[in-house]
Amino acid sequence: MKKVLVLVCTATFLFSFSQKAMNTVEYKSSLEVFSIPGLSQSVSIDCGNSKMILLSGQVPLNPEGNLVGHNVEEQTQQVFKNMEHILKEYGGTAKDIIKLGIFITDIAKTPDFRKVRDTYINLQNPPVSSLVEVSRLFRKDVLIEVEATAVIKNK
User: Fold this and answer.
1) C-alpha angle 112/138/58, rounded to 5°?
2) How far apart are CA 57 and CA 101, in angstroms?
3) Half-sphere exposure of 75 (CA within 13 A, CB side)
4) 67-81: pLDDT as tens digits
């Protein structure tokens, strides 16, 4: 009897703190960003008062799939434009980004990346970040790829 009572109390405790409804997951793309078949540009997870947006790694391609820029600074500008277009689909901007994952082919070019990044992000509460130098990305002429996570308040 004591074991049953403990089990019922434990179950009641756990369920009282669990979420009441299943969070919805929504996939979105922007027509302003090059789309790759079999890959989602972003996914949104409803967290109640806000939504968490996970962005696929963004590269410096325009909507037609053409490379924009021949250096890290120019390419980073296109990467953040792509992120802005995607986040706009959810009612947000790059200022809502809370995490960045940066993949760069030349770590010495990090200041060029930061120069552009700082024009887009919230500098008072900058996102947490990881920066990794890679020998190559999916194309030899692509010098940088950035993935991001953002949190946008629900309206």
Assistant:
1) 55
2) 8
3) 23
4) 999 999 999 999 999
- Residue 131 has a CB neighbour count (10 Å cut-off) of 14
> Using alpha carbons only, what angle is made at residue 78 by residues 92 and 152, rounded to the nearest 5 degrees?
10
Query: Within 13 Å and on the Cβ side, how many CA atoms surround 8?
Result: 5
The pLDDT tens digits for 92-150 are: 999 999 999 999 999 999 999 999 999 999 999 999 999 999 999 999 999 999 999 99
Cβ-based burial of 106 (10 A; exposed 0-12, middle 13-18, buried ≥19): middle
Overall pTM surpassing 0.85 (yes/no) = no
